[in-house]
Design goal:
This protein is an all-alpha fold. It contains six helices and no strands. The chain has one domain.
């Protein structure tokens, strides 16, 4: 368990548990996305490049990632933007699995 907790301290590991949870929610509920509000998922699709670039920049600079996941934060005028690349990451893994 300690090893998992240590991994969770790594910034990039934030994508896995959050994306995994959203991916399962997608499977269980049958809906494409409902996290923020109507149009949230489409906004993230249109702005995927900017979300990924900012996430990467913050990881490289060792800056906090809270604005991507925290309820009280907005990034590019939108809340919860970190859940989208996490979701895409997990969906990509799912497509590669046998």
């Amino acid at each position: 368990m300690k090893n998992l907790e240590k991994l969770e301290e790594e910034a990039l590991m934030w994508l896995y548990p959050e994306g995994f949870a959203q991916g399962f929610e997608d499977i269980f509920t049958g809906r494409p996305w409902h996290l923020e509000h109507e149009g949230w998922f489409e906004w993230c699709e249109r702005n995927e490049r900017y979300i990924k670039e900012e996430f990467s920049r913050r990881v490289q600079k060792n800056e906090p990632l809270n604005p991507f996941f925290g309820l009280w934060y907005k990034l590019f005028g939108m809340r919860f933007t970190g859940y989208y690349p996490g979701y895409r990451f997990i969906r990509g893994l799912k497509r590669r699995s046998p």
